[in-house]
């Protein structure tokens, strides 16, 4: 976790976050200057940001929204006051509506982002100043500390060279808390190919098989939010009563970027999980990130104990070996 400290000062009406990174300050700055990179980490897990407008200059604005796993959007706006590449950004930080107009019923703060070189790389310092003590209490109660910490905690993967950071390491699993697990897998292929492999049934049937000896007998997908999907597998040798499947609902579908679905084993009594799958490309390498939300730690541990991630890696390796060369 790159975040080294988060402090609040009720007298100065500020929250200050500090994070250190092992990269030059120019690379750190670029993650904030490029809206496509900014979208990859701004917003806590499960609430990625989309920047519709991004004018990084004094007098410019940024209009963005964070989309929940249920498809609900939360809007914000920055009005840039100072931009000093690659060291400093100062902006008024406001809640907004879908058109980018400031929501005057909510407090507007002042956000100062500082970037500096260090012996080990670079340091990022964010200072959020509220106009009143009541406003500070309000944004803290809304989870500002947790949200910023989680957002900046995702920055490592954005500023890293993906070829060094994730390529060749297989399927990586990170337990975030009792209800959340993050799984990542990198592919030496452009994003549009990995997206096709996950959304076109005729391609999915060629790699999404788990261990050898199984075939995908059902692959029905409705990508429309609110639409249903169903997958089923059976042994290639036709052994009866050994098949299984999953079904659920599509919640969010953003082409070549994000798919959020519910998932439950067909016919089982277990609660459904929420699977938030995102696709990010950098220099021809695509990083696949799956954030799974479980009902509780018991369900999380029971599903992980099935060897789920080993089966995922077998499928991903098959995708690389058999599908990518010919798609």
UniProtKB/TrEMBL annotation:
SUPFAM superfamilies: Bet v1-like (SSF55961). CDD domains: SRPBCC_CalC_Aha1-like (cd07814). It comes from the Bacteria. Residues 23-159, 188-322 form the Activator of Hsp90 ATPase homologue 1/2-like C-terminal domain. Pfam families: AHSA1 (PF08327). InterPro entries: ASHA1/2-like_C, START-like_dom_sf. Belongs to the AHA1 family. This is Activator of Hsp90 ATPase homologue 1/2-like C-terminal domain-containing protein. It comes from Pseudolysinimonas yzui.
């Amino acid at each position: 976790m790159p975040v080294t400290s988060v402090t609040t000062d009720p007298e100065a009406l500020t929250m200050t976050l500090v994070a250190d990174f092992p990269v030059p300050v120019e690379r750190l700055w670029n993650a904030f200057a490029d809206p496509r990179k900014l979208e990859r980490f701004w917003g806590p897990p499960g609430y990625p940001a989309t920047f519709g407008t991004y004018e990084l200059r004094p007098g410019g604005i940024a209009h963005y929204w964070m989309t929940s796993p249920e498809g609900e959007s939360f809007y914000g706006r920055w009005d840039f006051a100072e931009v000093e590449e690659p060291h400093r950004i100062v902006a008024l930080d406001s809640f907004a509506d879908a058109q980018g107009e400031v929501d005057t019923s909510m407090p507007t703060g002042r956000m100062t982002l500082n970037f500096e070189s260090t012996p080990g790389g670079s340091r990022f310092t964010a200072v959020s100043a509220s106009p009143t003590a009541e406003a500070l209490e309000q944004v803290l109660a809304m989870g500002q500390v947790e949200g910023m910490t989680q957002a900046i905690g995702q920055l490592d993967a954005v500023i890293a060279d993906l070829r060094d950071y994730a390529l060749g390491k297989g399927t990586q699993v990170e337990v975030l808390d009792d209800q959340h697990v993050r799984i990542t897998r990198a592919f030496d292929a452009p994003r549009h190919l990995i997206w096709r492999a996950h959304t076109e049934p005729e391609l999915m049937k060629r790699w999404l098989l788990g261990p050898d000896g199984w075939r995908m007998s059902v692959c029905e997908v409705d990508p429309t939010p609110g639409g249903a999907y169903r997958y089923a597998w059976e042994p290639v040798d036709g052994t009866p009563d050994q098949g299984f499947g999953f079904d659920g609902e599509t919640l969010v579908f953003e082409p070549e970027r994000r798919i959020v679905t519910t998932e439950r084993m067909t016919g089982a009594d277990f609660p459904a999980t929420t699977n938030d799958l995102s696709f990010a490309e950098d220099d021809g390498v695509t990083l696949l990130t799956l954030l799974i939300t479980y009902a509780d730690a018991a369900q999380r541990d029971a599903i992980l104990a099935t060897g789920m991630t080993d089966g995922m890696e077998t499928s991903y390796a098959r995708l690389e070996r058999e599908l990518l060369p010919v798609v």
